[in-house]
Amino acid sequence: MDLPNATFTPSPPKLQLAEPSLSLRCFQTLFHKEHSVLSIAATKDYIFCGTQGSCIHVWGAQDFLPRKVLTGHRGSIFALVLDATQKTLYSGAGDGTVRAWDTETLTCRFVVHSGPNVGDILSLAYCAEFDTLFMGCQNTSIQWFSPSSPD
C-alpha cells in the first residue's frame, strides 16, 4: 500500500526530560504529513493513530509500514482505546460517535451514537471487569455502554 503522505525515519531526535541527564532517544519516528495525530493505541501487530482528518492510520508494529486507513468518522479522532483482548479498537470522534473496529480484519464492527447534545467524544476508557466502555463527552457528561450488548 502506497501512502505518499507518510514517512518513516530511523534517526529521530532526542527526547528531553525534566532532568537533562536523563534524556532518552526515540527508537523510531513515524510522520504523517496531512493531519495532526490526536490519539494513539497499539497492539503487537499494529499502531493506530487517530487524526484531526477524521481517519485512523494503521501502521505495522514490527516493520512500521503503513497498512490501512480506517474511515467512517466525520470529525477528528480524539480518543482510541483497546478492549481487554486487543481484538477491538474503539474510536471516539468529533462527530459524536464511537466506532468499534476489528483489529484483525481492520473493519468496522458497529457504531454507537451518543445521546442528544453530547458534542464531541473527547475520551474513552474500557473496563474489562464490567465489560463497559466509558465516553467522556464535550457537554461534560460521562456516558457508557456494554460492548457485548451495544443496543
Automatic annotation (TrEMBL):
Keywords (A to Z) from UniProt: Repeat, WD repeat
Pfam families registered for this protein in UniProt: WD40
Residue windows of the WD repeats: 70-105
InterPro entries given in the database record: WD40/YVTN_repeat-like_dom_sf, WD40_repeat_CS, WD40_repeat_dom_sf, WD40_rpt, WDR86-like
PANTHER family: PTHR44489, WD REPEAT DOMAIN 86
Name of protein: Uncharacterized protein
Species the sequence originates in: Dispira parvispora
Upper taxonomic lineage: Eukaryota, Fungi, Fungi incertae sedis, Zoopagomycota, Kickxellomycotina
